[in-house]
Design brief:
The structure is a homodimer. Chain A is of the alpha/beta class and about 525 residues long. Chain A is built from 16 helices and 16 strands. The radius of gyration of chain A is 29 Å and the shape is elongated. The mean pLDDT of chain A is about 90.
Chain lengths: ~525, ~525
């Protein structure tokens, strides 16, 4: 397919060079399928000479039925002083059997002299012969000019002579790399323009790193200067501070520069697919990631919330739905009634900003926040608060009493913490006991057990996440803690909060809200 | 002090508008002191009209003895249709008593019409009168031209007329805001150049947001176009995707553009101080943060490690020590040891990098870190670890057993949590009980009581701070937690750490280290 900008994702190669990133063979296949679903033009899937796992991947990959993407294997120019055909690394690249071959070569004379310890002219021959070899084999050759911009700063003539050699050898793409990630947009622009002068007919690309936090800006600048091929990784990980985050670059190119990078209609999936890659790599997407982060369209200050309701353009640079994200109006002491009313409307659509319930909720939130509660990350607890204020809520159960005992060393045949809980449901009491790793786990287990016979649906709930924040640490162990819990029933996730100077009480409050929330929704489903 | 670039940090205002960021009064003071230590020119410390906590802060702040920074309060132009003196928001700003007053006003006609619902001319008057008022009061007025760049795109003449009004009213700084964070460097550059034409004698500033991942690039571009005042937040948090991360911007300006932003010698502390602000806000510094992240100078690919050993410039854009960071070679044992040896030398000066204790400590730390321990914020625990490795440490006591019971509702005449602890000191046992607000407090009280008759000096120890972090939230209530404790004897503070899936056990470990550390120092005093 022909796009304005050709995207090459290197999650499986440069991304795998990020600290803490390791892909199994199965992971690599799952990432490949995800990138193909998004529709990037090229997937740089590994360095077959560097490890057997990558070679095994290429063996399996030939049977993948990719819809949109083509695979490429990554390697270097031939070693100094040998024939290209006798270089085992070159043979591995060939054996990988991919349509695309990415060859990196040195453009910075410092690297040629000190790292390769080769003659400058020999390096030119290494570039030229390696590219010629793969062109003769009918492959698409992408030449990565490593350290091109640092090379220009050091010895521009030499850097450009490496590019000339690659063009003359028939490289299909010349990719200018800011390998150390330290360049500013101005030098990127100058470098791209210099190359275009000598490589008018070859497609030029950019490969940027984020060591100065400028990978996105440098990639955009390069595109504006004439590059039509961009390398990066969907989530942004890679060596050191990472590569250009394609999940942030592609929306900028498509929505703001009107340059098509992906098959039509695929941009809305970019958040979901980026999360999937992150999930496979076992890392988290930062909440404040441009375009796709959960905070990217969260509005907190009262004046911002007020503005958004009047005209969303007032505080949003794009429509969040264009990238499959959504707007969130946060609740806080610096937010105002406008945010509250939006939440109340979901339960009682007739309510306006001046409704007494909204006024009293605003007061209540201010007071609760001063005590350490925070509803921003606890939508389900906030909904229970609204329902209580609307007098549309009767708790399904109450905890009459509980005890939690933690002992070290543990007694025989029992975990360190054990708890019993007595609940009241309607007019029926139930008491149950359980053990756990810590006191909160034990309490949670006992509470679920006590409620099980009344509400079998609770069996489906699992805790997804548990966070503790000491609100004012200076009170030390009698400081208040805020507990945030994320629960799931497998289909939907919800968040609740509890605050107390006693961590067990704070956890109890968040656990009770979580269960009540599920029961409210089950009851409404039946109505 | 006169710098090339004046830095305004808005962690306490725009930063506090970031999702999940809440500062207590005590937090705000700690952040202010940290920013002053770094030496930013201005600290925008809050919006006194928006909430009582900010006003209370300004009341307390006048007694802070800041060495480098000046405070400013943030608010808006007067409301439409009233006299500036009758605007309660303006009165709050005045009352805050700061040297600097930051006034934001509308530069985008869309906002004037749809959000303020005011006449275009009335908005000009609001800007003008508000600035005039504060100049008459002898304040330094910083005018934030909200949405300036979007305003230029919509109605450039009007946007520039708001700037003209601010200049004529005597604003000391004109700050151009990319409030929605959606602009590219090219439009930032054009906007700054347009303003410089009409405001030649006023100092121009930039306030960028990161919604397209370009806040850093836009700030650098603005500086290159002539801005000499930059706003941002040290860690980078703020409304939605956050503000310009000053911890990444300042190194770029100082090291690459040779523009002084901080007092001489302070740049090396930027990582440590940014971490401190993050710690106060209870957020993590991303590992891949430019310049200061723990991965920023981590080298993983074999060829990179090889290059770094030959010449560090080959794969590093700056020397990590310039920002107080350090190189880590992930595939070798060299990484980390230099830091460890510095700590070991404090106890045993003769030790070198190749000493077996240093080698085994490096191994041990790697293992412990993989289990969730972190010694960065726990120097006392780390020292105990070193002493143990040097075989220069015999614990003063051991906890033989303990039990903690939490019950709700509480029994009569006793607090919700109670604990007993049995300790062994030399050959003597002691058992003691105590109560507390929560289980950790009860355990702490009982432990001190049991040890009191052996070590009367412990009476002087108080816990100053207690922090809990869930290490992997996805395991929910059986996730590991890391507890950090700060203790004091009134003269000296020290920090210890504990890790466990059981919060009581994690706290126990940190408490024991804290007491042992004090006893070690008491014993050495006597020697």
């Amino acid at each position: 397919m022909n796009f304005d900008i050709e995207i090459l994702d290197t999650t499986l190669r440069d991304g795998a060079q990020g600290e803490g990133i390791t892909f199994s063979l199965r992971d690599k296949i799952a990432v490949t399928e995800t990138l193909d679903e998004l529709g990037v033009s090229w997937i740089e899937a590994g360095n077959p000479a560097s490890n057997p796992k990558d070679m095994e991947f290429f063996r399996l990959a030939s049977s993948l039925n990719l819809k949109n993407s083509r695979l490429c294997a990554f390697g270097s120019t031939r070693k100094k002083g040998i024939n290209v055909k006798d270089d085992s690394q070159i043979c591995s690249l060939l054996e990988a059997g991919t349509e695309g071959i990415v060859i990196f070569g040195k453009s910075w004379d410092l690297h040629v002299k000190e790292i390769l310890q080769a003659e400058l002219q020999e390096n030119i021959a290494m570039i030229s012969e390696t590219i010629t070899f793969f062109k003769e084999q009918g492959r698409t050759v992408i030449f990565d000019a490593e350290h091109f911009f640092d090379g220009c700063a050091g010895n521009k003539d030499y850097a450009l002579s490496t590019i000339k050699a690659a063009v003359e050898a028939g490289a299909d793409r010349i990719v200018l790399c800011d390998t150390n990630g330290g360049n500013f947009p101005a030098s990127i622009e100058a470098g791209v323009r210099d190359v275009i002068k000598i490589a008018a007919v070859t497609q030029i690309g950019i490969h940027a790193h984020d060591d100065a936090g400028l990978a996105l800006a440098n990639s955009i600048t390069a595109v504006q200067a004439g590059c039509t091929h961009v390398q990066g990784t969907l989530v942004g990980f890679g060596e050191r501070c990472g590569n250009t985050a394609l999940s942030a670059l592609i929306p900028s190119l498509e929505l703001k520069l009107n340059l098509r990078c992906l098959p039509e209609g695929n941009l809305v999936s970019i958040g979901e697919l980026t999360r999937r890659v992150a999930e496979i790599a076992n890392v988290s997407i930062y909440d404040d990631m441009p375009y796709i982060g959960s905070h990217a369209f969260s509005h907190k200050a009262g004046m911002h919330v007020d503005g958004i309701i009047k005209n969303s353009r007032s505080f949003e640079h794009i429509n969040p739905s264009a990238v499959g994200n959504e707007r969130r109006l946060l609740l806080s002491e610096i937010g105002g009634r406008s945010a509250i009313v939006e939440h109340v409307k979901k339960i009682e659509p007739s309510v306006t900003k001046d409704h007494p319930v909204v006024v009293s909720l605003a007061e209540k939130i201010k007071k609760l926040e001063a005590e350490g509660w925070a509803y921003e990350g606890a939508g389900a607890s906030f909904e229970i608060l609204i329902r209580r204020e609307l007098q549309r809520y009767t708790p399904f159960f109450s905890i009459e009493a509980y005890r939690v005992l933690s002992e070290h060393p543990a007694s025989e045949n029992i975990q360190c913490s054990h708890a019993w809980v007595k609940v009241l449901v309607g007019e029926q009491y139930e008491i149950a006991a359980a053990e756990g790793v810590g006191p909160v786990g034990a309490l949670d287990n006992a509470l679920r057990r006590a409620l099980a016979r009344f509400f079998p649906v609770l069996e489906k709930i699992r805790l997804e996440d548990y966070k503790v924040r000491v609100i004012d640490g200076k009170e030390a162990t009698s400081a208040k803690v805020r507990v945030l819990i994320e629960s799931t029933d497998g289909q939907k996730n919800w968040n609740t909060v509890g605050v107390s100077a006693d961590i067990i009480e704070a956890s109890r409050a968040a656990l009770v809200d979580s269960i009540e929330y599920k029961l409210i929704y089950e009851a409404e489903k039946k109505e």
